[in-house]
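S.,

Sequence below, as promised.
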Amino acid sequence: MKEKGTLLVVGSLLALSLATVTTARAAGTLNFTGKIINESLPDRQ
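The prediction came back faster than expected:
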């Protein structure tokens, strides 16, 4: 029974780090896309 608890903790930690990486990657992609859009638009300043 103790092994099951350890597996659960390790599993949730893995899931958490995976979610963090995915979120960071998504944010980076959004940032990158925004940068491209900003550069392709004519300057409005």
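Residues 9 and 15 are 10 Å apart (CA to CA).

Coffee later?
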